[in-house]
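Quick one, tokens below:
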């Protein structure tokens, strides 16, 4: 596969739900240690949905120079509040972690423009149809599937401050 769609945003931006909806692995970058295995995964799946993508944007765009980017835009205050619920320990480094994530995402958006969708519009079939048409070109939009998925609450099974910290310090080779 020559093209790739990268969907990203801050943590707690429904990337697990998007991964289920698009039937791809959630957060595949951290589960692969080398750029070659990320490239193999991306070529097979055609979509990478990962909040760590901005931190690896140069590696991703060197492998897929014509990658299409989709950004989920969620309010930083909402992200902070949601992270505190699932990871109370984040409060120790919260400001630096959030600042680094926002900085990486901002830089990525500047260097790799793409479709930006508001978090609170992800249940809008017109908005998500746009994402579908970018991520799954040539495949018909299934409004019934979308309606079924909108009723589901899907979260990552494992989420820890180590995952967030690891995303900030790990670079695949």
């Amino acid at each position: 596969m020559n093209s790739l769609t990268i969907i990203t945003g801050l943590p707690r931006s429904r990337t697990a739900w998007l991964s289920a909806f698009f039937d791809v692995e959630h957060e595949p970058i951290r589960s692969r240690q080398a750029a070659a295995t990320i490239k193999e995964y991306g070529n097979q799946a055609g979509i990478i949905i990962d909040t760590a993508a901005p931190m690896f944007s140069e590696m991703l765009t060197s492998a897929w120079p014509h990658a299409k980017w989709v950004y989920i835009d969620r309010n930083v205050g909402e992200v902070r509040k949601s992270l505190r619920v699932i990871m109370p320990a984040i409060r120790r480094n919260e400001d630096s972690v959030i600042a680094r994530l926002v900085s990486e995402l901002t830089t990525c958006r500047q260097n790799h423009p793409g479709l930006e969708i508001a978090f609170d519009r992800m249940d809008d079939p017109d908005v998500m149809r746009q994402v579908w048409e970018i991520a799954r070109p040539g495949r018909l939009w299934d409004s019934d599937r979308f309606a079924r998925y909108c009723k589901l609450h899907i979260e990552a099974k494992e989420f820890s401050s180590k995952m967030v910290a690891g995303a900030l310090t790990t670079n695949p080779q």
